Amino acid sequence: MLKKPRTLNLEHRTTFQAGFTLIEMVVVLVVISLVALLVFPRLPSTDAVNLRTSARSLGAVIRYLGDRSVTTKTPYRMTLDLTDNAITVKKIVNGEETAPDDPFFARKLLAEGVTIEDVEIPRLGKLGEGAVTVNFGVAGLGEFIMIHLKGAKDHHFTVTAIPDGGRVEVLEGYQEMKL
User: Fold this and answer.
1) Among 119, 127, 133, 139, which residue is least crowded by beta carbons within 10 Å?
2) How far is it, in rounded angstroms, from Cα 28 to Cα 97?
3) Residue 41 — very low, low, confident or very high, per pLDDT cuts 50/70/90?
4) Measured between alpha carbons, how far is residue 15 from residues 7, 18, 20, 78 in Å?
5) Are strands 131-137 and 76-81 parallel, antiparallel or unpaired?
6) Which CATH architecture fits 46-172?
């Protein structure tokens, strides 16, 4: 059986246009706006990320200094300059301070906008200016230390280091010393 060829009937042809209606576009924009309103406030700001990264880097350096001083039987000295907002590490060789040969100590620890607010050491109390020296002997960290870092938007992180075991904690917020 042969099929009869179809002819195009122009009278019954309907036009079909691909695309979205105005209502569909408005619904999509409303959904995207609602998702943005819920998600954006929960994303960390770059200031908060810089503060967290700086606190973790400082904690890692303190932990590494303690481990390094014990394993190499070499004392180290970390200076926290609260006035210039700088942290330096020196190796002690024959009683003299020298630059450590490890490139881990040469990197910048504090990100832009992060400052050392104060340092607490039980024998000195809370220090908010000047320079604080933290000694790492052949047995590791010599004394308990608590360092408060402040971000650009008054956010805080606290880095605590405990001698005799080398435990270092990085805590969110401004933590007070518990005696």
Assistant:
1) 133
2) 65
3) confident
4) 17, 10, 15, 78
5) antiparallel
6) 3-Layer(bab) Sandwich (3.55)
Domain boundaries along the sequence of the chain: 46-172
Instruction: Identify the bridge partners of residue 150 per DSSP, sorted by sequence position.
Output: 115, 156
Q: What is the pLDDT of residue 14?
A: 57
Burial class (CB in 10 A: 0-12, 13-18, 19+), 159: buried
> With contact defined as beta carbons under 8 Å apart, do 70 and 167 qualify?
no
Candidates 139, 133, 134; CA nearest to 74 is 139
Residue 124 above 90 pLDDT? Answer: no
The torsion region of residue 128 among left (phi > 0), alpha (psi -120 to 50) and beta comes to alpha
Rounded to whole angstroms, the Cα distance separating 72 from 154 reads 39
pLDDT at 60: 92
Helix (H) or strand (E) holding 71: helix 46-72
Tokens of 121: 């050491």
Whether the Cβ atoms of residue 174 and residue 156 lie closer than 8 Å to each other: yes
